[in-house]
Amino acid sequence: MDVAVIGGSVAGLQAALTLGRARRQVVLFDDGRARNRAASHVHNYLGVADLAPDELLAVGRQQLAAYGVDVQERRVEEVTPDDDGFVVGGRHVRVVVLATGLWDELPDVPGVADGWGQSVVACPHCHGWEVRDQPLVQLGMRGAPDRSVARALLLSRWSDDVVLCTDGDVLTGTQLDRLAVAGVKVRTERVADVGSGVRLVNGETLAAARVFVVVRQHQQSDLAERIGCQVTDGAVVVDEGGRTTVPGVYAAGTTAAPALLAIGAAGQASTAAVAVHGDLLESDLGGGW
Q1: Is the pLDDT reported for residue 288 higher than 70?
Q2: Residue 176 DSSP code
Q3: Which of 68, 126, 224, 233 is the most buried (most CB within 10 A)?
Q4: Does position 66 have pLDDT exceeding 70, yes or no?
Q5: Dist CA 16 CA 125 (whole Å)
Q6: CA 125 to CA 2: how far, in whole Å?
Q7: CA–CA separation, 162 vs 234, rounded Å?
Q8: Which DSSP helix (H) or strand (E) runs through 59?
Q9: 197-200: strand order across its sheet
């Protein structure tokens, strides 16, 4: 078999689709743990009318069937190199595409995890339009005030009623000045919990049509490191074609570029898949990797 794609969210599906259409033999492994599975809809994705994440992935799987892609619903725990490729899930393949994605570490505030993907979200570009011109709260991640301020400034373009809750972090004068210019109000009290609004420890509740949070991102899988790929700042290091530092191993989507939106992850995965096909062709012609 030519390629094993590990991960079945938008990046993995797009990589498999591109390779299947190139008449490559592809097996895709998916454990069903897409990062955005808690969300109601996928927004800001050209050509997609706000489908739920599972609906979008189901459409992608249906497309794969036409190109003979073998979908295996299981988690891959090991990738074993051999003389002319790798063994993945009991299959011998020439190339591996890692599209295992990320998981989000949420602020340690009661109620955030309960509302995640619904009343609590992270990305203004993904969810800002739906709550434009409404009261919004940006909840910071303690210990990361720079990111909290940057996100609140960004959010101010969707509403003129934005409150940044620093949850105890103290901001600099420069940060406060920038927030004031953008019209963002600042509350530095600790946050008691998040529910229909944001309740501060003094008992006051801030109204919020949506609570935006800063998250810390982590790789869902350590396969890349165990294979020997270079990982820097939580991202698998790749070149412009998605090639990692291990020959025959590629990385796609947020596995390689954590800041990508869903549509960007799909686009990068398509680019990586084109590189995979070209490299396999070169190998077929005797050029090696």
Answers
A1: no
A2: H
A3: 224
A4: yes
A5: 26
A6: 36
A7: 30
A8: helix 53-65
A9: 191-194, 197-200, 205-207
As given in the structure block, the two tokens for residue 74 are 């299981």
Phi-psi region of 226 (alpha: psi -120 to 50; beta: other; left: phi over 0): alpha
43 falls in which pLDDT band (50, 70, 90)? confident
Q: How far is CA 100 from the centre of its chain?
A: 10
Mean pLDDT of all residues in 44-61: 87
User: Does the global pTM surpass 0.85?
Assistant: yes
**Residue 132 has which token pair?**
């434009």
Q: Within 10 Å of residue 226's Cβ, how many Cβ atoms?
A: 11
DSSP 8-state class, residue 50: S
pLDDT tens readout for residues 134-181: 999 999 988 889 999 999 999 999 999 999 999 999 999 999 999 999
Q: Hunting for tokens 């020959």 — which residue is that?
A: 247
Residue 110 CB coordination number (10 Å): 12
> DSSP class of residue 259?
T
Query: What tokens does 79 get?
Result: 């990738």
For the record, the structure tokens of 216 come out as 């810390």
Q: What is the DSSP string of 107-141?
A: PS-TTHHHHBTTTEE--HHHHTGGGTTS-EEEEPP
Both tokens assigned to 157: 């373009």
Decide which of 229 and 287 is more confident: 229
Average pLDDT, stretch 255-271? Answer: 95
